[in-house]
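Worked example

This section walks through a single chain of length 164. The input is the sequence exactly as stored; nothing has been trimmed or padded.
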Amino acid sequence: MAISYILSIQSTIQLIARRIEQISSLFPENAIANTGRHIFPSLKQLKSKIDEIRELKLGFRSRYIISFIERLDSEYELNAIADFSYEKKLSWLTSFLGIGPKVAHCIMLFSFADHDVVPVDTWIKRFYAEYSADNGRKFTEKFHPYSGVLQEYIFRWIRADRGV
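Given that input, the structure is written out below as tokens.
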């Protein structure tokens, strides 16, 4: 799932989905019968097709994804950080090329179920500016331990409210 969030950098949901399927379709053995879709490949599979992934025209994200795949030693390494502290997880994730705090927070919330981590993007900033007297500073504290989950509902609501 980390790769999904690297693909999300300056992108739309439609483009992210298309790029995920582009990568996944490199592995016909992962096809889901009668759907035209594929299960996302394992790290071992991804490592076996680095050159093909490089050729997919994923834009500036391509080098971030390749770097991420090449740097990970095993699926275990990625799973092992689930038990790290917030600070250590954030530091480890942001040590990868192209992963800043927002993408790291998305990975922490959605891949590691850190329900109190709040990824702050443009939409959440707009929400804070409109509805939060302290610009969101107390949001995580007030809604702990589920502030990240609530953020997802707010994200969807504010986009729908704006007609997006």
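What to look for: Residues 122-161 form one domain.
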